[in-house]
């Protein structure tokens, strides 16, 4: 699904997300619909980035959606949490049962009682407390309004990677590699625009609603027309 963020509408629904499909659509619409295109926001899918650069070169900025970055990190953080938990004595590991949600949720979204319980667990399990602080440090980088140039954000992101490596958690290394590989388009978020794919997620819920009301649709052409009629 391709979204016009400026006008909050669906531009097109493609049958697949292969690079050739995206390139063909972008090329066909480059002279008209996309003639004023300045930025593309997407998740960490090579085909989207490569297609944009093949058709538009450096004229169009590619920005990786910050929420997909954090979601990817949350998965790796949970892997690291489980790795730490496996190393604990049986009784201590049992104490952590059911606490996953506390470790993965932003503290500002917890109740006072939940924050108190999380603080108690941090005191009991310092390795997990370090991991939680590392997650919070990444969130603060993305929310720091002082960054207005990608280059300055890259310095902070690299420092954050170095700090994470000092924790010595193998489960985090996969994310560190991902962040290093996608560093430039991720850092493109740090401009005055702060572009994200938030509206796209809203449209995705609308698409799921169409499928739910129709009890599923096997004909892609019909599905595409329904989406464009509702959101185009």
Can you characterise this structure?
The chain is mainly alpha-helical and about 230 residues long. The protein has two domains: about 1-65 and about 195-230, no CATH class; about 65-180. The chain has twelve helices and four strands; from the N terminus they run ββαβαβαααααααααα. The protein has helices at about 20-30, 45-55, 65-85, 90-95, 100-105, 110-125, 125-145, 150-165, 170-180, 185, 200-215, 220-230, and strands at about 1-5, 10, 40, 60-65. The strands form two sheets. The chain has a two-stranded antiparallel sheet with strand order 1-2. A two-stranded parallel ribbon has the order 3-4. Strand 3 (about 40), helix 2 (about 45-55) and strand 4 (about 60-65) form a beta-alpha-beta unit. Helix 7 (about 125-145) packs antiparallel against helix 8. The protein is globular and about 60 Å long.
Brief sketch in words of this structure:
This protein is mainly α and 232 residues long. It is built from 12 helices and 4 strands; from the N terminus they run ββαβαβαααααααααα.
Terminal Cα separation, in Å? 11 Å
Q: What is the rounded Rg?
A: 21 Å
Give, in order, the helices and strands.
Answer: EEHEHEHHHHHHHHHH
| Global structural class | mainly alpha
Low-confidence stretches are: none
Strand content: 5-15%
Net shape: globular
Strand order of the largest sheet: 1-2
Mean pLDDT: 91
Largest sheet: 2 strands, antiparallel
Number of DSSP-assigned strands: 4
> What is the total domain count?
2
């Amino acid at each position: 699904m391709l979204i016009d963020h400026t006008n909050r509408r669906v531009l097109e629904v493609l049958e697949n997300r292969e690079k050739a499909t995206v390139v063909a659509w972008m090329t066909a619409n480059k002279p008209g619909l996309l003639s004023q295109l300045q930025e593309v926001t997407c998740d960490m899918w090579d085909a989207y980035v490569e297609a944009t650069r093949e058709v538009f070169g450096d004229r169009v900025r590619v920005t990786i959606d910050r929420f997909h970055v954090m979601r990817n990190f949350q998965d790796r953080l949970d892997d690291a949490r489980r790795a730490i938990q496996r190393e604990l004595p049986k009784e201590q590991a049992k104490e952590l049962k059911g606490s996953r949600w506390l470790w993965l949720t932003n503290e500002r979204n917890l109740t006072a009682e939940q924050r108190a319980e999380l603080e108690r667990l941090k005191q009991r399990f310092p390795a997990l407390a370090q991991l939680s602080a590392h997650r919070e440090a990444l969130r603060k980088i993305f929310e720091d309004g002082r960054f207005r140039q990608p280059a300055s954000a890259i310095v902070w992101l690299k420092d954050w990677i170095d700090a994470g490596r000092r924790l010595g958690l193998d489960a985090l290394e996969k994310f560190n590699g991902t962040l290093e590989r996608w560093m430039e388009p991720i850092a493109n978020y740090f401009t005055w625009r702060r572009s994200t794919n938030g509206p796209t997620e809203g449209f995705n819920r609308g698409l799921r609603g169409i499928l739910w009301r129709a009890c599923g649709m096997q004909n892609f052409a019909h599905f595409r027309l329904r989406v464009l009629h509702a959101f185009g």
